[in-house]
Amino acid sequence: MAFTAKDVAELRKQTGCGMMDCKKALTDANGDFEAAIKILREKGMAAVAKKADRIAAEGIVDILTIGDTTAMVEVNSETDFVAKNATFQEFVKNILKTIIVNKPADVAALMECSCEGEEGTVTDALGSKTGTIGEKLSIRRFVILEGAVATYIHNKGETGVVITFDTDLADKAEFAECGKNVALQVAAMPVKYLNKESVPASVLEEEKAILISQMKNDPKMANKPEQVLAKIVEGKVGKYYENNCLLEQAYVKDDSLTVGKYVASVAKELGGNITVTGFVRFDKGEGIAKREEDFAAEIAKMVNG
After folding, report:
1. Coil vs helix vs strand at 181
2. Among the ranges 78-82, 110-114, 203-207, which has the highest mean pLDDT value?
3. Cα(192)–Cα(280) distance, rounded to whole angstroms?
4. Per-residue b or e along 251-277, where b marks 16 or more CB atoms closer than 10 Å to that residue's CB
5. What's the whole-model pTM score?
6. Which of 52, 116, 144, 234 supports an S-S bond with 97, CB 3.0-4.6 Å?
7. Cβ–Cβ under 8 Å, residues 182 and 259
């Protein structure tokens, strides 16, 4: 019995399995739609669709550099156990390779790319791996960066950091050490902005307004002249920069230096230029609401079907 691309698409829609898996099932079933569904169920793959409403908040953040291109991705799973699975980790590496080869604009575009090291598109591979591993998997986000970078992965994928540089010292071991130290800084002490210039004017104005309001509500400060309050606010804004801007932060290995001054000292010592141009930090599961369920209720639900 022959089958069409439309049949494959419909089978994929009904089962949630990958396109290649649906095509193979229909081939093995000689085009019989119900038999193909049965084949997928017997393989445990049709259960993928039932996993769609589950929350995938575990997983890993991983990083790969090929040539001058670096990619960082967050791929989520339902449990931390799966994140430690070698098959899952290899799949994440293949996703990273796919990102670097194709440089897709976003996750939607990535899903349509042919997946490196896997059969079919990323969508197909994701469906297939979900069926094989037995948990909902999802690709949440990725970033592509070009040029000199330093990278750091904390606690086997809990947090990933990429620092970008403009430098003529990229081949120096001392630069690599400096880059690693800055990446460790971002992992240890999260910040919102690179430097003072990166802070939006609207954010600064809001911060100043809050500080002035706080002082006017303080009986000890309320009667001070506006110009005195303004001066105090400027001092407090400096503290805001220290807490929220990477290059203004105290360097964790030597708090007599800011991160910016530390980088400048390394550049001077090497007789070249090192400029931090940006950073990206991914925390696994950041912002994903994890479903909290009573364990006894969960068991009862399973027993009662």
Report:
1. helix
2. 110-114
3. 10
4. beeeeeebbbebbbebbeebeeebebe
5. 0.75
6. 116
7. yes
Can you tell me the distance from the alpha carbon of 253 to that of 275, in angstroms, rounded to the nearest whole number? 19
Structure confidence at residue 11 (pLDDT): 80
Question: What is the rounded CA–CA span in Å between residue 69 and residue 114?
Answer: 19
Give CA–CA dist 176/231, Å, rounded: 41
CB atoms inside a 10 Å sphere around CB 114 = 14
Confidence tier at 292 by pLDDT (50, 70, 90) = very low
Residues 233-284: tens digit of each pLDDT: 888 888 889 989 999 999 999 999 999 999 999 999 999 999 999 999 999 9
Long-range Cβ pairs for the range 41-45 (8 Å, 24+): 43/131, 44/131, 44/134, 45/15, 45/17, 45/21, 45/127, 45/128, 45/131, 45/132
CA proximity to 144, closest of 113, 182, 112, 103: 103
Measure the CA–CA gap between 169 and 165, rounded to whole angstroms: 10
| DSSP for residue 245 | B
Contact 193, 260 (CB under 8 A): no
**What's the full length of the chain, in residues?**
305
Contacts of 264 (CB under 8 A, 6+ apart): 274
Are the beta carbons of 206 and 236 closer than 8 angstroms?
A: no
Other Cβ atoms within 10 Å of 299 Cβ, number? 10
Q: 301: part of which helix (H) or strand (E)?
A: helix 295-303
Phi, psi for residue 61 in degrees, rounded to 5: -105, 130
Q: Count CB atoms within 10 A of the CB of residue 37.
A: 19
Nearest CA-CA partner of 90 in 44, 35, 137: 137
